[in-house]
Amino acid sequence: MPSSADPHPPGHLFIVRADITSIACDGWLVPGDEDGPGQSWRARYAFGPQDPPGEELKVRRAVRWTAAPGDARVPWLVHLGGDEAHPIEWYLEGVAAFLARATQDPTRATKRHVPLYALPLVGTGGGGAKTRSGELTAMLVPALVELARTFEVDLALCLWTKAQYAAAQEARSRAAAQDPRVWAALGDRLLPDAARVGEEAQGRLVLFLGGGVSQNAGLPSWDGLLDGLARDLGIPDDQIKDLAEIRDPLARAEAIRAVAGADEAALKRAIAERIERHAHPSLCHCILASLPVEEAITTNYDRLFERAWTPHRTELRVLPYQSVAHGKPWLLKLHGTTVRPGPTAGEQAAPRGDDIVVTRTDYAQFDLRWRALASIVETLLVTRHMLFVGFSLADPNFQRMVDTVSRAVRAGETGLSSDEHTGTILEVNPTPYLAQVWGGEFHVVSMATARGDDILRQARLLEVFLDRVAADAYPRSAYLLDPTAVGLLDDDEHALQQHLLTFVDALERDPRFAGALGRPDVARRSPALAHIRELLATLGWRGARKPTKPDPEGT
After folding, report:
1. Are 328 and 310 in contact (CB under 8 A)?
2. Segment 207-248, tens digit of pLDDT
3. Which secondary-structure segment (H or E) carries 29?
4. What pTM did the predictor assign?
5. Residue 160 contacts residue 17 (beta carbons within 8 Å)
6. Which residue, 159, 98, 95, 99, is CA-closest to 133?
């Protein structure tokens, strides 16, 4: 556990839109009762066999449960069964019991600087607080801020809907107004940079993700990947040690293939299979996928960002394998992928990695195969603000792209001022003189506080930084028309909500427009009605007079 003298004190509440059953963490809260997890949770996650907890759960409120085979994360069954008569404190006490038990368990599934425990918005799915989501959020969020400090752990509140996410961000903002320690880890040095990037995320931000993001999820570095690959291909340890002397990863990959006597297809398939063993997106992936961005680029082969994105948002198209549709967000995989998605949906059954860029030959052919994709990056460097996370700017192909843009700017071909930054680099494990080399094109923000700063501590600080970016970027109004958010609304917001709902009800009752807002096919007949429907959805409206499904992230 970090010491009290740690300049980045432990105990932070992260707020993400994520599937709690898949996020990489050390332990997670499973709502249930004396019979075990509810059926909806059993349907979503393959728990290992275990008898019902019976009387033990009544006494302890939290019992260690059995994870799915091969999953090192510890699920904790917490007794949260209740009805509308149960006070909100009942659910808060269950969360406290979960942390009291989980933090005494020595099992660690992550290598984070501070242990991470995940929980849903308890009680709001099929539980007794489902009609009091706003009231519960208003009380739960500040309680979690305090519990994170008390137990000296990080917490990830995993939310499903836009309205819940916006409401939780608002509740944390109010808590931070009363207690500046909420963002103490960032200090005066990083808060202004986080605010600046958060402002860019309100319409201009595009993400560029490198291998450092996936290492937070347990994926190995290039050295670790290539060593493991060599073992998978049957190369003896003494030869693996010799191969490690080759510092250029491209040359080393080719040498491994030659020593193992494998063809290029076998080499790439082995890499894809090794990467696919890591199925859980990191907290960093989940924060990035929670940002209000529509465009992202990565040189990573893995599918962790896609997994962090897909459970709760509009379908993410993956380029160049799927076409881009109007209004659909997309991810450009510059160096290929472990598993190709289908043209519109689905994916191949087995990892192949047949198009991943891994050898010198692949890089030499990059311009021939991927030049059109590189042009997309160059255009975005001019038209958007690019945020680099976990990316090595030593990549020769990227350097060519930046040089193309820089020459165009200097020549006055883009309309971009020569003193503007085209992006921001978030730097973990600082590269010497990076700011001097790239300072003209990018704003460089280092997570290191001192020379030789611990890499895991810097990685955690990056997560806190991105969490603050997300807090500043997301529109808080997204919960205004959620009928369960009443407990979070002030008097003015409540009055506005009632006026808007009265308007919607009147519109729905009018025979000329009946059902138009609840049915997209009808609403599209009138462009104005379609726009009204879209606006209402951004304010948290979920349809007039329609029963809603319980949120899968509560109970």
Report:
1. no
2. 999 888 887 677 777 788 888 888 888 899 899 888 888 888
3. strand 27-33
4. 0.88
5. yes
6. 159
